[in-house]
Sequence to fold (363 residues):
Amino acid sequence: MQRRRFLFTGLTLATASLVGCGGGDDGDAVVLATRRDVTGLSASERQAFIDTLHGMKQTPSAYRAGTNAYDYFVSAHVEAFESHMSNAHRGAGFLPWHREFLMRFEREMRRVSGDPGMCLPYWDWQRPGSYQSIFTDDFLGGNGDPSDLYLVKTGAFREGVWAMGGDFDDTPDEFPDTDGDDVPDIVGPDRLSHRGLTRCYNFLGQYRDSLEIIDHYMDRYPLGRVLNYPNYDAGPFDEMIARSEVDFSDPAQVAAWQQLMADSTSISMRKYLEVRLHNPVHGMIGGQMGTGSSPNDPAFFLHHCNVDRLWDLWQQHHGNAGYPTAQQSHMSGLGARLGVYAEAVRVEDTFDLAAHSGVRYEG
Fold:
């Protein structure tokens, strides 16, 4: 009986490819493309990434008529965010949903660029100083201009060259937590400008002029803490619904919610990764990254690649231990469909990164 095996290639962002080859007793070997640390990309590789994203804005989507290849993903994320019945956020389906999201985005990158091996890079925000080579004038650009509605004026995605699509959330209140305690503390304009991409670096209710705040925050959350969790999740498994019933103007309800989440997060890798690590990065960058239309900021994809990388590292140690059954969660448990996607994609379809996405992570 033939079997399939996976190999990997360490080629560059622009040249890594998926190929088939004869395998003798091993059957067909599939070469895995490599998602690399963004700080290690060359100038030409960064430019290829920039050009591809701009090209996606000019190319019709393969997934939905009437929108371009980039803005489809903004729309899909908004749709997933607007429903408390979605399994894309604040629930066990968070990591599977976004793994599927990244895989589909990469497919569109490859189609638009013509490079079958192009991969998203990841931003390892647990590595001190990593932001310094990303939010630069020649790449993602920096902080928004506080004198002009926090619009980004630098980089390849600045105002005037990177347009906001039709699905645009102007209220930065979906990721309002910058310290992982699940209580809103984000600052910035009440309404975001549709003129272009916005960012408003902030922490604990105070405006900041540097993302050094992420380094200080992540000092408390080393990689080992993620990997040491023995279980994927713990109840409540669908806190999007539970949280919608909390009155955050009532101190007693806030305290009860915080205690519930603290108890659950202490034994749940997914909650720890989503609430303690993922959410605050959105909040600290602010602007569009603090909204349901956060994919308007290309930093979203580098951020979520790292979230997925951490899940993959955890899976290498623990497999899928503690993922809820269908009986434990009809919304996100085994067998549940991932919302928004037209095809019947189920959570377990994403569990094997290599088989699902055809990639591996550098390092």
Summary: Residues 172 and 291 are 5 Å apart (CA to CA). The chain has one domain: 42-350.
